[in-house]
Amino acid sequence: MAALIARRILMLFPSLLFLSMFIFLLMQLIPGDPAQAYLRLSQIPPTDEAITAVREELGLDLPLYEQYWNWLISALQLDFGRSFLTGERVLEEVLYYFLATLQLSLTAFLLTIVISVVIGIFAARYQKRSFDTFSRLFSVGGSAIPTFWLGFLLVYFFSYQLGWLPSGGRGDWSSLVLPVLTLSIPYIALFSRLLRTSLLEVSKAYYVTYSRARGLREPSIFRKHILRHALLPLLTVSGVALGYLLAGTVIVESVFSWPGMGRYMVTAITNRDYPVIQFYIVFMAFIFLVVNMMVDWLQAWVDPRLRRREGSRHV
Fold first, then answer.
1. Which positions fall inside the ABC transmembrane type-1 domain (predicted)?
2. What is the four-CA torsion angle of 293, 294, 297, 301, rounded to 10 degrees?
């Protein structure tokens, strides 16, 4: 297990280096001139002299490889430049908005996992009964409903009609309820059905039949053999879902006026705030790599066969 963790961490650095190079080159294809965007946001007339001066100040007059090298050296020192729009350090701004998104996404993720596991277990246990039918209808409805419409629907009933919860903003725990539910319901519908299917498939596996033949108790068989292996597909998709949640949920944050990464990035893209856009893409790539690495560790911990398979590749 320690060797697997070490290999994944070592693979993280070349992956980030390659992604940063690709993203830097991709930024060059964005329409518009960063110098003109800087002058426009600074409310300075974009004369030829001003554009030339800004290009020299930002290092845009240097060759492309030199621009990337300068950016990489600064990035290693955690200096990602300053926002064209606000003039603040990009790292500090992104972390401020990311903390709001982190609070929202982690709460929604934990709620999703807990409820999905409960629904999935009961749906598999009471297969073809009323609860299973209900979970199937919930799965279809929860997956099909548009997120923005679900958010407006929850606001209409719980805020305007009943007055129980605030309609938007970031405040105490009550302000989390509606956006968390809006984020969680579609994922709960998907994850609970996936776990139910996985539980039913694993329960027919040969090692489960062999465990019953040995006279092991059903609770022990379910906990050690069925549930443990049935969670593997859920771990895979939950890692991807967590990455998307941490990347900033633009629609939900807009509906509930949540000051997170989604709304912040929409503003940055609209105003051609190049330093913010570039750092955001690199930062989100790092988040996805770390989340996928953690999912690999969890899968190897849940299923020892994956550890042995990984070890055999490096023999």
1. 98-295
2. -160
Q: Using 50, 70 and 90 to split pLDDT, how confident is the model at 3?
A: low
Same domain, 121 and 41: no
6 within domain boundaries: no
Domain hosting 306: range is: 96-313
- CA 288/CA 311 separation, integer angstroms: 24
Which of 48-57, 92-101, 166-175 has the highest average model confidence (pLDDT)? 92-101
Which residue stretches of the chain are H helix? 2-27, 34-41, 48-58, 64-76, 90-125, 130-144, 147-155, 174-202, 206-213, 218-221, 227-246, 250-255, 261-270, 274-302, 304-313
Encode burial over 32-45: b for 16+ CB neighbours within 10 A, e otherwise.
Answer: ebbbebbbbbeeee
Please check whether residues 109 and 37 belong to one and the same domain: no
Overall average pLDDT of the 228-257 stretch? 78
Last residue of one domain, picked from the residues 46, 77, 108:
77
- 174-202 and 130-144 helices cross at what angle (nearest 10)? 120
Domain count, the chain: 2
Task: Give me the helix-helix angle, 174-202 and 90-125, nearest 10°.
Answer: 50
Please tell me the pTM assigned to this model: 0.77
What is the chain's alpha carbon radius of gyration, rounded to the nearest angstrom? 24
13 lies in a domain? no
Q: How many residues does the chain have?
A: 315
pLDDT tens for residues 100-144?
A: 888 888 898 899 989 988 888 888 888 878 888 888 888 888 877
